[in-house]
Each structure stands twice: as C-alpha cells, then as structure tokens.
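As agreed, record copied across for absentees:
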Amino acid sequence: MNKQKAIQTAYPRIAKERGTSVPVSNRLLKFSDGSSTKAVGIDLSQATCPDRSYHAELAGVAYENGIVKLLFGQATRSKKVRSLIEVSMSPHAVIQSLNVIAEIKKPSIEDLLRLTGEETRTLSEFDEDPPEVARL
C-alpha cells in the first residue's frame, strides 16, 4: 500500500445553527491487488470547544435519510426538552465508534456506572426541537 500525504481542507457548514469548521483529510489507499479506496476522516481535536461543559440528562437516537443522529438533551423541571445537541453520523461511523467503545476494558461501562451511581436508562424520544439546538 502506497503512503500518500493527506490533503486537508476545511469545509464550513452553512446553516442557521451554530457550528464549527473542522479539517477533513482525504487519502487514496492503494492495495497490492491494484484496487484502491478513498479514506476520509476528521480530527475532532481540531474542533473548537465551548467554554462550558454540557451535561446531558437525556439521550436518544434517530435515523433519517440514511443518517444516524445521536441526540443529547437537557430537560426543564416540567420534563420538556430545554436544549439539544444533535450529532449526525453515517451508520458506518456509528458502528466504528461503538466498536472502539466496546474495546475499552478499563474502566468498563459497568465500572463507570458503578462509580457514578448511574443506572442504564431507556432512550428518550425527541418529538420536536427545543429552543436551543446545536447540530454537529
């Protein structure tokens, strides 16, 4: 397989929502049988981070138009969704992420639940957008 330098290009997201441009790397991978494929990736360490952290109390998953949306939200006291972070990923990227998480041995998910005193919960349903939505 030939090594080629990754081409980095920033693609700004044009939308009403707040967002950030992240460098995208493109590599052409050639295999010994003569075939090739294109590998595209992003370096999330290059993304700008907000000054404050976000503690999600709700989580959900939606699948629309071939895209998986991971939903993280905060609720008001009346149990309505106050704010929402929506992370869009391809189904393949979700599978890759879950495989990476599954390989983490220490601490395990069970260890984290025990340490935090949390329990596994049912996913939340998000029927409509709350006043604050950040789409990534």
